[in-house]
Write a structure and sequence with these properties.
The protein has 150 residues and is an alpha+beta fold. It contains 4 helices and 7 strands; from the N terminus they run H-E-E-E-E-H-E-E-H-H-E. The radius of gyration is 15 Å and the shape is globular. 27% of the residues are buried. The model has no long low-confidence stretch (mean pLDDT 88).
Length: 150
């Protein structure tokens, strides 16, 4: 799989429409449709735009680490972090919808560091092997985000 299209291009616009449709399917079916990708689950992240204050959503692969949820800011191997990461840094109290759950879950986001990051990275690569390919496609170190219950 190649990198995601560049923002502002027609392919980017098509990608955004696809993710909107995917999000709608996940939400309408409570994750029964579109709520898994291989071994990984797919959640819907509700976050606030750092510059606009607008509520945004993003469907993302996730894994579990005890009571915490783990997501990866890969952006498909792009040299840029996904916008949702900047939004979480500015407002680290998002809400997630998990497959099979009726009620959205409030969480607190933080970036994993050190050994924790390495352990969680290996866990997430075990769920979605393309993360390793994405890391090789970029010079940035792809962030691993921990979403803890609040």
């Amino acid at each position: 799989m190649g990198k995601l299209p560049e923002p502002g291009t027609p392919l980017w616009t098509a990608w955004l429409r696809f993710t909107d449709l995917h999000t709608s399917l996940i939400r309408a079916s409570r994750g029964r449709v579109g709520g898994r990708w291989g071994k990984a689950g797919i959640l819907v992240l509700h976050h606030v735009g750092a510059r606009t204050g607008t509520l945004r959503t993003a469907p993302l692969l996730f894994g579990r680490d005890g009571e915490s949820i783990v997501i990866v800011a890969s952006q498909g191997g792009s040299d840029r972090n996904p916008a949702w990461l900047a939004n979480l840094r500015a407002t680290p109290d998002p809400v997630v919808e998990l497959p099979g759950e009726r009620t959205p879950r409030p969480v607190r986001a933080r970036i994993a560091e050190g050994e924790e990051r390495e352990r969680l990275w290996r866990m997430m690569v075990g769920l979605y092997r393309s993360y390793d390919s994405y890391q090789r496609m970029t010079t940035r170190r792809i962030p691993v985000v921990v979403l803890e219950p609040r």
